[in-house]
Amino acid sequence: MNLAGVKDPAVDALIEKIIAAENREDMNTAAQALDRVLRAGHYWVPHWYKASHTIAYWDKFGQPETKPKYDRGILDTWWFVGAQNERP
Known about the structure:
The chain is 33% helix and 5% strand. With 88 residues, it is mostly helical.
């Protein structure tokens, strides 16, 4: 069941590698690679039959220490905080 509608040849190839793995080490390596690819795609995985939802997030946006006088909270003054894009 592909509820998220993922259509990615890399995902398909990694799933096939997991299925065809001849030992646990190969399966774990392929599963870890699949995990990285899926996390990079920011897919949401629903949890059925659970009374609560677990949410993980990455606070990847920065904001200025002093906000503009008429700031409306719109993303105009935000930026992506990453290894190459980090602002002081």
